[in-house]
Amino acid sequence: METLRSIFDVDFNKYWSEAEKINNRVKKILGSSFSYALSENKRAVLYSVVKYFNPDVVIETGVGPGVSSTFILYALNKGVLYSIDVRETLENGRPVGFLVPHELRNKWKLYIGKSREVLPSILRYVNKIDIFLHDSEHTYENVMFELNTVWNHLRDGGIIFIDNFEWTEAPYHFAREKNVNLYRLVDEAGGLAMIIKK
């Protein structure tokens, strides 16, 4: 597992402690439900990178209760988060993204639908993006579709996060095709990987 410091040569400790405070709030609301939600280590990694890079445009696929959305939005300064989820309502009857605090929703745009249908239209609208998080359907076909669709709109130096990257060979094949490194950031719960566009 690579550490963020070894990849970026940056000390992310201060961001880690900020993420811990946000995590305490999220855990109080979430409790023991949504076991598939982003793990605590993944939350800290995601928050730290977004906070450090201060992006203008972030897109994520897969929202669920809104754990990743909440951490991204807290980390954003001037940017906007575009989120895609296939469902409007979760298994407990709550709306998708219910965790996202009201005060953060002015920089959040939520779209309901399959990423295959919604993602291309968002990309046409925003044109260039800084950070992308894949956390929707983890099939080979869907992961490859999302990564390939995003790639030409990702700015140089832009970042792709792939949650549960170990569930399919797609991230490895994609990184090899593009001749870029696939960094293993978190090994637990299916893993979290990162690609940086050269």
* Morphology call: globular
Indicate the CATH architecture: 3-Layer(aba) Sandwich
Rg over CA atoms? 15 Å
Regarding CATH, which class?
Answer: Alpha Beta
Number of strands: 7
The major β-sheet equals: 7 strands, mixed
Spans of at least 5 consecutive residues with low confidence: none
The CATH homologous superfamily? Vaccinia Virus protein VP39
Percent strand equals 15-25%
Structural class: alpha/beta
As for the number of domains, it is 1
Draw up the topology in text:
Layout: H1 4-8, H2 13-30, H3 40-53, E1 57-61, H4 67-75, E2 80-85, E3 108-112, H5 115-126, E4 129-134, H6 140-151, E5 154-163, H7 170-178, E6 183-186, E7 192-196
Parallel strand pairs: 1-2, 1-4, 2-3, 4-5
Antiparallel strand pairs: 5-7, 6-7
Structural description of this entry:
The protein has a 7-stranded mixed β-sheet, sandwiched between helices. By secondary structure, it is of the alpha/beta class. Helix 6 links the parallel strand 4 (129-134) and strand 5. It has 7 helices and 7 strands, in the order H-H-H-E-H-E-E-H-E-H-E-H-E-E. The longest helix has 18 residues, at 13-30. It has a single domain, classed as Vaccinia Virus protein VP39 (Rossmann fold, 3-Layer(aba) Sandwich). The chain has helices at residues 4-8, 13-30, 40-53, 67-75, 115-126, 140-151, 170-178; strands at residues 57-61, 80-85, 108-112, 129-134, 154-163, 183-186, 192-196. 40% of the residues lie in helices and 21% in strands.
Please provide a brief summary of the model.
The chain has 198 residues and is α/β, with parallel strands linked by helices. The protein contains 7 helices and 7 strands.
